[in-house]
Amino acid sequence: MGGLSTGEQLAIFIPLAILEFGLLAWALVDLSRRDVVRGGSRLLWVLIIVLFNLLGPILYLTWGRNT
Questions:
Q1: Dist CA 27 CA 56 (whole Å)
Q2: Beta-carbon neighbour count of residue 48 at 10 Å?
Q3: b/e for 4-31, b at 16 or more Cβ within 10 A?
Q4: 42-51 and 6-33 helices cross at what angle (nearest 10)?
């Protein structure tokens, strides 16, 4: 981050990291509590959630849950 000071970089990074880990935890806990998910494969959803950092949990929470 070129012209940003360390403090400014942390001010951007810390909220994004909290958001990412919060969504990750929420998605994994929700997945563990559901009997049925879209696509049928819970293992596939775990991989998507974990491997596609911010996008994976968002995809699961918006599309993967079978409400």
A1: 9
A2: 19
A3: eeeeeeeeeeeeeeeeeeebbeebbebb
A4: 180
Q: What is the separation of C-alpha 13 from the centre of its chain, rounded to a whole number of angstroms?
A: 16
Within the chain, where are the H helices?
6-33, 42-51, 55-59
- The first and second tokens of residue 11, run together, are 């001010």
* Domain definitions of the chain by residue range: 20-64
- pLDDT tens digit string along 21-62? 999 999 999 999 998 999 889 999 999 999 998 999 999 999
Q: Which amino acid is at 50?
A: V
